[in-house]
Amino acid sequence: MTRENRIVEKEDLIKQDKYVKIRKQYRKELLSIKKRRRVPLGPHATFYFESFDTMLGQIQEMLYIEKGGDQQLKDELRAYNPLIPKGKDLASTLMFEINDPKLRADFLGKVGGVEEKVFFQIEEELIKGVPEIDVDRTSAEGKASSVQFIHFNFSEGQIEKFKLSDTKIIIGINHSFYNYKEEISNDVKDALVKDFS
Fold first, then answer.
1. What secondary structure letter does DSSP report for 166?
2. Are 157 and 125 in contact (CB under 8 A)?
């Protein structure tokens, strides 16, 4: 089964004719999963921690919207499968969400390299985020992308600490222009712990 292998394959997808009929309920259930995997940080950043279910839902929805068939499916699998945690890591989509286009452009122009400044802190230990290497997420001019894909790789000891109920876990960004950290809630922690099993 592909869920155990931590990879989405064609057989996991709901056929389009059936998906159309259940889409509303499917998206509602997926939203409930995503809600427990979301961590806002500061005024503009939000981490969305990905999983087999969130990536399956993303691929399903992209195929529904674009109707690109098997060729599109290959592209979607190639793009989204790397964001499924493999058992010793967490994977996150980091989004900078600013509605005003001028303010957004100004902000992104000041946070170049932000993808290199993301971390988890488990008690006194820092786990540095590793940006997805598919494309450069900061332009040559120093402008950051509003969407970043970040991996966090954990040692066995760090995973064991993460799982303890009384361990304080912080996520943060320590960029000179965007410096925030936040303790994750127990709900989020409980959801993320499942990514390590």
1. T
2. no
